[in-house]
Design brief:
The complex is a heterodimer of chains A (about 200) and B (about 325). With about 200 residues, chain A is an alpha+beta fold. Chain A has six helices and five strands, in the order H-E-E-H-E-E-E-H-H-H-H. In chain A, strands 2-1-5-3-4 form a five-stranded mixed β-sheet, with helices on both faces. The longest helix of chain A has 17 residues, at about 180-195. By secondary structure, chain B is of the alpha+beta class. Helices cover about 30% and strands about 20% of the residues of chain B. In chain B, the strands form three sheets. Chain B has a five-stranded antiparallel β-sheet with strand order 4-5-8-6-7. A four-stranded antiparallel β-sheet of chain B has the order 9-10-11-12, sandwiched between helices. In chain B, helix 5 packs antiparallel against helix 8 (about 160-170) and helix 11 (about 270-275) runs antiparallel to helix 12 (about 285-290). Chain B is globular, with a radius of gyration of 19 Å. Classes of the chains: A alpha+beta (about 200), B alpha+beta (about 325). Chains A and B meet through strand 4, helix 4 and helix 5 of A and helix 2, strand 3 and helix 6 of B.
Chain lengths: ~200, ~325
């Protein structure tokens, strides 16, 4: 059955073909320091992502973030600062939240990687995803995948559910819209219902 | 990020043997990759330390042993660290973000480079990066920078929290290189800038930090870390204080005070320590000692507020111990 429902991603990708998008920031000239090593040939690696084995060719300098977005079409993980300061790229590696922008893809072979695309069970949203919708915990939505991945890890880590503790342990995720009050409400909602259900 | 090779040795001797000019070791990578993305570091190869079994955390009556590759989050959460060395746990939990603490190692955290904005921007000259290039910070944006131990060439501060707690608890850094193992007290590990600000520690390029040792003590058990910063979380210290007291019958038998965010190394405040010993453990004693903590301070122009702020951090941290 043909579908005419374009995804937002496909639309943006299509638009890029006809519209020359100007660079927002000129690349900064590299200092005349050590000459760059000859670019090593990409190596074929295998990554375990959302329960599936994915094979791809990467250079040593390819970050997990770029591998996900540029090579595996998993664009739910966002690139914000690309310096570990904003949390938009938060994913789980062996169940622990990390910044994909500061992770080299070659160094996470054999580890279990979970991205926002792997959080729901089929059509059943993860409780944090459902709570973000219920509490309207976003505005533009760019930081949301990272916020949700961080919140899911926060719950698994087993912290107290008071607002101050949530704010402290969610501080690695920046929201420039300032949706923080609703984000805290959403996380607190899930934490309290989990505690009530004895799920810790 | 410029291209580089990734070398993945399977044991410590192989990692040390792989070191060569233009190469860097990579552990958590949270600082190194930032520097590489800014072209501040441009290594030809990274030597990956992941396969080295150096991430153990052990504690007994004699002290605490932290494998250099133990993750910051794991050390902070370890029951023995929380109970017997609370300043270490508190310092780690005040550092960076939960994500970064899951990645960063304690050995790597000792080697985090300064957050001086000029050092981190390749468009500016910096004596750390290029000896003799000049230091725009001294007459520039120096609000975050050193009030103690600076030189005419550099007033950068060390940004990490953990080393400040380690200085107060008199930890030892264990390093291994081609010529074997050596142990250096943390107070001798960092170098003041002088005329060679590029040389920040005594660690040789082909040496690897393998362990951090912290002796058990009554004062380590009664220790605390207070960090004051521009926002509530996920920010570097303007000033910080790690303090530790051994109090017997209300009288201070031993005291340790170290400041962070004020110098290129964790700053032991000996005069403050001396003012505490033998005195009653009360607010008046703490205020008197705190006033001595910044002895010799020379603010750079925009960071004069740090002198009193550091004193207050000391007083607050001491107050939290009784």
């Amino acid at each position: 059955m043909a579908t005419f429902a374009l995804t937002r991603r496909a639309l943006i990708a299509g638009a890029a073909l006809v519209i020359a998008i100007p660079r927002l920031r000129a690349p900064r000239a590299a200092p005349a320091a050590t000459p760059a090593a000859a670019t090593p040939a990409p190596s074929l690696i295998s990554l375990q992502i959302n329960g599936h084995e994915r094979r791809l060719a990467v250079e040593p300098r390819t970050t997990l973030l770029d591998a996900l977005r540029e090579q595996l079409d998993l664009t739910g993980t966002k690139k914000g600062c690309d310096r570990g300061a904003c949390g938009a790229c938060t994913v789980h590696v062996d169940g622990r939240r990390v910044n994909a922008c500061l992770t080299l893809a070659m160094r996470v072979q054999g580890r279990a990687i979970t991205t926002i695309e792997g959080l729901a069970q089929g059509d059943d949203l993860h409780p944090v995803q459902a709570a973000f919708i219920r509490h309207d915990a976003f505005q533009c939505g760019y930081c949301t995948p990272g916020q949700i991945m961080s919140a899911a890890a926060f719950l698994a880590e087993g912290h107290d559910a008071d607002p101050a503790t949530i704010r402290e342990w969610m501080s690695g995720n920046i929201c420039r819209c300032g949706a923080y009050p609703h984000i805290v409400d959403a996380v607190r909602d899930v934490a309290i219902s989990r505690a009530a259900n004895g799920a810790g | 990020m410029q291209a580089f090779d990734l070398i993945r040795p399977t044991d410590l001797p192989a990692a040390i043997a792989a070191m060569g000019k233009g190469r860097r070791f990579i552990a958590g990578g949270t600082d190194l990759l930032q520097l590489m993305k800014e072209n501040i570091e441009t290594p030809s190869a990274l030597i990956d330390l992941d396969a080295l079994a150096l991430d153990g955390i052990g504690a007994d009556g004699g002290g605490l042993m932290l494998g250099a590759l133990a993750r910051m989050a794991d050390v902070a959460a370890h029951p023995a660290v929380r109970a017997e060395y609370p300043a270490i746990s508190q310092a780690l939990l005040s550092a960076a973000s939960p994500q970064v603490r899951n990645m960063g190692t304690v050995g790597g955290n000792l080697l985090q480079r300064t957050r001086c904005v000029y050092f981190r921007d390749a468009a500016f000259p910096c004596n750390k990066r290029t000896p003799g290039a000049g230091c725009p910070a001294i007459a520039g944006q120096n609000r975050m920078l050193a009030i103690l131990g600076g030189s005419a060439d550099c007033i950068a501060t060390h940004p990490s929290d953990l080393p400040v707690a380690l200085a107060a608890l008199e930890a030892t850094v264990v390093m291994q290189g081609p010529n074997g193992t050596r142990r250096v007290p943390i107070s001798d590990f960092y170098l003041l800038p002088g005329t060679t600000p590029g040389q920040e520690t005594v660690l040789a390029p082909d040496e690897i930090i393998t362990m951090i040792e912290v002796p058990a003590s009554a004062w380590a058990r009664r220790s605390a870390y207070v960090k004051l910063r521009d926002r509530a979380s996920f920010e570097f210290a303007l000033v910080a204080a790690a303090v530790a007291l051994d109090v017997r019958d209300g009288t201070i038998a031993a005291a340790r005070v170290a400041l962070g965010g004020v110098a290129a190394k964790p700053w032991r405040a000996m005069a403050a320590e001396a003012a505490l010993v033998g005195q009653k453990a009360d607010g008046a004693t703490f205020a008197q000692a705190a006033a001595l903590a910044t002895e010799g301070a020379r603010p750079a122009g925009r960071n004069g507020f740090k002198v009193r702020l550091a004193q207050r951090a000391v007083a607050r941290a001491l107050g939290a111990l009784v």
